[in-house]
Amino acid sequence: MHLLVLGGTVFLSRAVAAEAFARGHRVTCAARGVSGSVPEGATLVRVDRDAPNGLDPLAGQDFDAVVDVESMSVTRVRRALTALGAGVAHWTFVSTCSVYADNETPGQRAESASLLDPAADDADETDRALYGQLKVASENAVRAAVGDRAFLCRPGLIVGPGDRSDRFGYWPARLCAGGRFLAPGSPENWVQFIDVRDCAAWIVTAAEQGLVATLDAVCPPVRWGEWLAAMVRAVGSDAEPSWVPQEFLLEQGVTPWMGPGSLPLWLPMPEHGGFMTRDVAGSLAAGLHIRPLADTATASLAWEQQLGLDRERRTGITRDNEGELLSRYDEGVFRARIV
């Protein structure tokens, strides 16, 4: 199979290219070539997807399958479909679980969950607030052009080696330091994510098998308590969680999910109960394989160590901030007990 990856130089798209080459496929990566390098064995063709004829350097080549990981621009997606769609047997578009309109109802499935309205044709394709709607519009463009041979892959949070968002990596980095740590909300809450290597492997398998479907790419839901305990074991730490209610964290200005001063992956409940409980039975039946959490944890820690455990982070609270929050919470609990 000759696979064209629109991208191929960073994170998921690079992992797809590497996985495909490892399986013996011919791999071409079409990218500007400024964000990173293509994996060993892949061929880079420099393109400019912002230019109307920016994919012309690919003219004359025959591809069996295309993988497009475009994050925001519907215009880029449509240009790629126009330039390449007629000549390939399979097309994968990497969308997102952020296309869903209902983030509260647990246990939703990709085939029946309600979606956001698609972004308007004149929408600002750089507006992060429109991320989910732009992805819906891109999905619609893919269906209209190559829907009979398309796999629409909707990942949740993609984690593992190559992730620079700090959202997942914060946790193995913090846990390996040991000691008492702040755990957000309740141990009974749910969390979901996907190892970048598992997502990439499924995308390549889908191209090999000609999978035509719209499915979520996340692991089955796991309880926060079980997830953190497994992570502690995986990194070989003596870390002990102190569970702090979400009400206290919100009162203290701790940000959910991501960003400076946040506790990564934590989302307030019940309003986000559906975001971390996607029903992925259909995905598993269609070939998605989820590796053991210990593998993701140790690989993520190794990546964090490569980046530098003490670096300034995009996401997460500092150790000093964590200590202050735990002290304030302990003081409040003590006062409540003596009143």
Question: Can you give keywords for this protein?
Answer:
17% strand; 339 residues; single chain; 2 domains; Rossmann fold; alpha/beta; seven-stranded parallel beta sheet
- The total count of helices amounts to 10
The percent range for helix content is 25-40%
Q: What is the overall silhouette?
A: globular
Structural class call reads: alpha/beta
Mean pLDDT: 95
Over the alpha carbons, how many angstroms does the gyration radius reach?
A: 21 Å
Low-confidence runs (pLDDT<50, min 5 residues)? none
Distance between the termini: 71 Å
Count of the separate structural domains: 2
Query: Can you count the beta strands?
Result: 15
Name of the CATH architecture of the largest domain: 3-Layer(aba) Sandwich
Give a short account of the largest sheet. Answer: 7 strands, parallel
DSSP strand content: 15-25%
How is the largest sheet built, in terms of strand order?
3-2-1-4-5-6-11
General description of the model:
α2 (74-84) runs parallel beside α3 (131-146). With 339 residues, the chain is α/β, with parallel strands linked by helices. The chain has a seven-stranded parallel sheet with strand order 3-2-1-4-5-6-11, sandwiched between helices. 35% of the residues lie in helices and 17% in strands. The chain is built from ten helices and 15 strands. It has helices spanning 11-22, 74-84, 131-146, 170-175, 196-209, 224-235, 246-251, 281-285, 293-307, 319-338, and strands at 2-6, 26-31, 43-46, 65-68, 90-94, 150-155, 158-159, 180-184, 190-191, 194-195, 213-217, 222-223, 240-244, 255-257, 262-264. β4 (65-68), α2 (74-84) and β5 (90-94) form a beta-alpha-beta unit. The protein has two domains: 2-161 and 192-217, Rossmann fold, CATH 3.40.50.720; 170-191 and 221-273 and 292-338, no CATH class.
